[in-house]
Amino acid sequence: MKRRITLGAVALAALVAAGCGSSNSNTNTSGGSSTSASTSSKKCTASIAIEGPFTGPVAQVGLEQLHFAQLAVANDNQANGTDVTLAQDDTQLTPSIATSKTQSIIASNAVASIGPAGSQEVEAVGPLFGRAGMAFVTGSATLPALASDGKNPTFFRVVPDDDIQGPQDANYAINHLHPKAVMLIDDDEAYSQGLVNVMIPVFQKAGVKVTHLTYNGTDTGATLSGALSSLATKVTPQQTVVVLPWQTAANAQQFGLDLKQQGKHVVLIGTDGTDSPSQFKIAGSYVSAFGPDISTSTSALDKSVVSGVAKYGPYGPFGVPTYQAADVVMKAISAVCKAGQSPNRADVLAQIKKTNIPASENVLGIPVAFASNGNLAGSNGYLFKIGPTGTYTEINPK
Fold it and tell me: pLDDT digits over 228-239, tens only?
């Protein structure tokens, strides 16, 4: 069955150094300053781009997103008779690189973009896309302010924001794990800090003592190892739950191993950034997620997507929402062409705003439509418990 629970609540996976050699087509965005793509009378032709961390310390995340986006473009091209090409822009989950890549996308003939992956990247590039009048749809950036601060007028996301995930995780811990004291550790970037800021008041209202620490999530090598080990030494016997709103699942795994080595027995709760069964597998831990794992779904659509993505790379649940983000863009382009227009940024943006995809026709299994601020109109919650062998089992997040 599909590991999915549809609730009025919600729940990034990864860290692996990898390249994007499995990509079958397209290179970094380049081109002139045209804001529209030509469409012949016989073919609906356009160019779009995807931004993601395809190399660097969180490459596994980006490659999952890239492969699912490639599949969505191929599937929709075939289904809709379109000829849309996908350019790839590697951001390494770094705002300064994302800014440079976004400027290149805007200078190209792309009519819309998918991504970026991280909230900190959207903070950097959202105003640029807005000034260009260019829609961008992310499958993973969850910071609430991205849709509420007015700086990103062409921003859309197919995942719920942290105002849903944070309270859900905190309330689950309060109601089921009954801690008297917890430790929350952020990794010094927008996504992580946003979740901590949402969760702390929930714990405090329930009378739970909160300790909040920070480490530099961009550290590597011996510096990172030392930081994680030092954090583990700070966990006291009273702190029976430690919450890790991190973007690197491998760091969560190493932190859990450090705790074990120090003889400390605590329950770890990782947010969506740690949702990586191949990397974070500390038994007894919990992981929340913003998208479903469709690997065992019996749905014909889901089965075709799971088998189809193998052409581009291995399946990973983190890529599923990005398939839907790409599908939103592709359907908008098709709608522009069906209306007799050549795809251009303004018309594609207008069609994305009208998105209304039934639950039965998309891989998220919920209706996909957008509020006026670009948020997903509706939410879905996922929580998994890690078993003795590292297997993720979906549980009720309430």
Answer: 999 999 999 999
Torsion angle (degrees, nearest 10) of CA 292, 294, 295, 296: 110
How confident is residue 317, by pLDDT bands cut at 50, 70 and 90?
confident
Q: What is the pLDDT of residue 110?
A: 98
Hey, what are 161's tokens? 């924001």
Taking the alpha carbons at both ends of the chain, their separation in whole angstroms is: 20
Query: 244 forms bridges with which residues in the sheet?
Result: 270
Query: Does residue 68 contact residue 24 with C-beta atoms inside 8 Å?
Result: no
The residues, any chain, with a CB within 8 Å of residue 256's CB and separated by 6 or more, are 268, 280, 282, 285
pLDDT in tens, 274-296: 988 889 999 999 999 988 899 99
Q: Which amino acid is at 155?
A: F
Identify the residue whose tokens are 């990794």.
187
Tokens of 185: 């550790």
From residue 47, give the alpha-carbon distance in Å to each of 34, 50, 101, 218: 11, 11, 15, 33
- Domains of the chain listed by start with CATH number: 44-161+295-369 (3.40.50.2300), 162-293+382-395 (3.40.50.2300)
User: Could you write out the DSSP letters of every residue in 39-54?
Assistant: --SS-EEEEEEEEE--
